[in-house]
Amino acid sequence: MWIFGGRARSPQGEDLDVLLSGVGSSDAGESTSEGAPEAESRRFRRPAAAAAVAFATAAVVALASSAASGPRSSSRGAVRGFSAPWAVQQLDDEAPKEADAPPACVGPGADCRASHCCIDGGDAGYQCFARDKDWAQCDADCTPGEHEGDKSNGWDQYGNPTKPKWTCDKLGERSKPGCGAYDTESKCPTDRCDWQGHECLDKCWFLPAEACKKLDRCSVVDGDKCKNACWTFQEKDECLDKDHRKRCEWKDDKCITACWMYGDKNSCLSSGGKCSWEGKCVDDPCSAPGEDCRKTKCCSAQRGGAGMTCFEKDQYYASCSKECGEDPKDEKGWSCKKLGNRTKTQTHCAWAGESCAAEGMCCNQGFICAVKDQYFTGCYQNFKKTSFKKIQLPPPPGWPADPKFVGGGQYEYEVQKAGPDQEKMGTSLYCFMAYLPGSYEERLMEIAKANYASVFACDEHDLFHTWQSGTATWDTQAATLTNIDVFIDVWQHVKEMGNLWKYDWTVKVDPDCLLVPQRLKWHLGALNAPVKQAIYVKNNNLNASIGNAGFLGAVEVFSREALELYFDWYPKCKSTMGNSGGEDGWMKGCMDALGIDHMTDFDLL
After folding, report:
1. What does the pLDDT look like over 450-481, one tens digit per residue?
2. Entry pTM
3. C-alpha span between 110 and 118 (Å, rounded)
4. Nearest residue to 321 (alpha-carbon basis) of 312, 332, 330
């Protein structure tokens, strides 16, 4: 049982001590004072003994009469006429309970029986209409009788299903029209709407988070608060005022969302701002293609500038691109002066033993990205493959026995053919042959040259020398050349020559392989490779151990973009993959580690 105690003053100025128990009754509409709403009286209802009820009721009536000529309080749950707040005394073991918050207003079609309240909207607002005691909903209007779409709730005298009939009684007040109903700035209510351009729009802070996310002009802040998007502020002072400067910044004469507002990599890099991800979202110190890079003198790998250099046009402009030449649309042309160094391509993964906290995955196959402790998340090898089985490996010394898994290692991925509306890669070929001087390989090269065959029939070709390789034995007891170092060196000479960058595909051809370039072009055209895609071509369908998982070194085919990645990162492949074994297996492993996709043509060899 609860007793509320308070002190009041009578009309004669006398102090009255009052004990109130069980004020109000269970009858709908009864209140604690004349004219008080039902909700106010219900807040104080408690069962009580008859004597206590009689005493309390007398006290309340007396006090209510003393306040009849004075102002009435609109506070929920207050007993009008009292000049001091209620003191609450707990007389039993029940914990005190606060009154429930009033039910929220609801949207069109939603149940409004509890709230009798609809959200603002529509051309004339919404009204809560009652169907019967079991249902009421918010709508723009209501017609008494049966409504299309209502489910059957009974049967008539002839056994036909019947639908409930709407009374359309109005519950509560009609809401206000939606902001969009106002067609002039003078009519647009500033308390809940904003006039933007030629439209009256809802203020963002009126909207729930889910609705906020769907509007470009609004943004969700602190998880569930809706506020005007930074780009809507046209003036610098408004962008950087005390309400916005924690989330907005002024750059290039416009207001944008500050990079530190983005909490994950995807939203950071897709923000449209000048942001990069370094374990957290930060201001990008470099420029994207199309931006003026005179001040930064560098190109952003994360925002499309991978493999690019900042080239100067003149004293007023510079931009990032892979190559610089005269712009046919500009009569003055470009100076093509390099401002800073070329930006490396990106692998989007971390290498063996390195931190993978930012990338969340490892480049090397057989490695996983895992949490060692609060200070280090890195890549360690958790399995290795032999020709016969896969062997699980424990974490390195000093690591927990079961570290938290973050991501796996790279594997091989097959790229899909270009779609009907996609641009396809061309079939121009740069070919090269590496041979051992004084060996049968040199004689085979000379025969091909005399017959204008093999690499000599490509669009452009080069020849390189090798040195004598050693041999090794696999766990299958099969012998193989150990020529990885030899061909790492050959590939460096290919890069130094620079001819490969002029063609779509680069083809490495062994001297004892007869290449027919025109047939190769036909095969590459049939692949329908997407343009500007890093790709290597699998060339056989032999058993994996015999066919080197589909990639034999007699003819190796790579797109220009694949080799751009390779030349940037081959030292990492060498340091983490070693240099023991055949160059074709090593080259495929490096391509996979770099995340370079493959396409397959089993008829290539």
Report:
1. 999 999 999 999 999 999 877 666 555 565 67
2. 0.63
3. 9
4. 312
Residue in 229, 228, 576 with CA at minimum distance from that of residue 409: 576
> Is residue 421 a contact partner of residue 530, using CB atoms and an 8 Å limit?
no
DSSP string, 185-250: TTTS-TTTEEEETTEEEE-GGGS-HHHHHT-TTEEEETTTEEEE-GGG--SHHHHTSTTTTTTEEE
Give the DSSP per-residue string, 254-302: EEEE-GGG--SHHHHHTSSSSEEESSSEEE-SSB-TTS--TTT-SB-II
In the 8-state DSSP scheme, what is residue 69?
T
> Pseudo-torsion of CA 6, 10, 16, 18, nearest 10°?
-50
Q: Can you tell me whether residue 335 is helix, strand or coil? A: coil
SS (H, E, C) 538-569: ECCCCCCCCCHHHCCCCEEEEEHHHHHHHHHH
Report helix, strand or coil for 591. helix
Tokens of 217: 């002009």
Q: % helix / strand / coil in the chain, to the nearest 5?
A: 20, 25, 55
Task: Say how many C-beta atoms besides its own lie within 10 A of residue 551's C-beta.
Answer: 23
* CB of 180 closer than 8 Å to CB of 125: no
Among residues 444, 486, 440, which one has the least CA distance to residue 465? 486
Task: For residue range 521-570, list pLDDT tens digits in order.
Answer: 999 999 999 999 999 999 998 887 778 889 999 999 999 999 999 999 99
Give, in order, the Cα–Cα distances in Å from 290 to each of 269, 304, 312, 320, 580.
Answer: 17, 10, 12, 7, 44
553, burial (CB in 10 Å: exposed 0-12, middle 13-18, buried 19+): buried
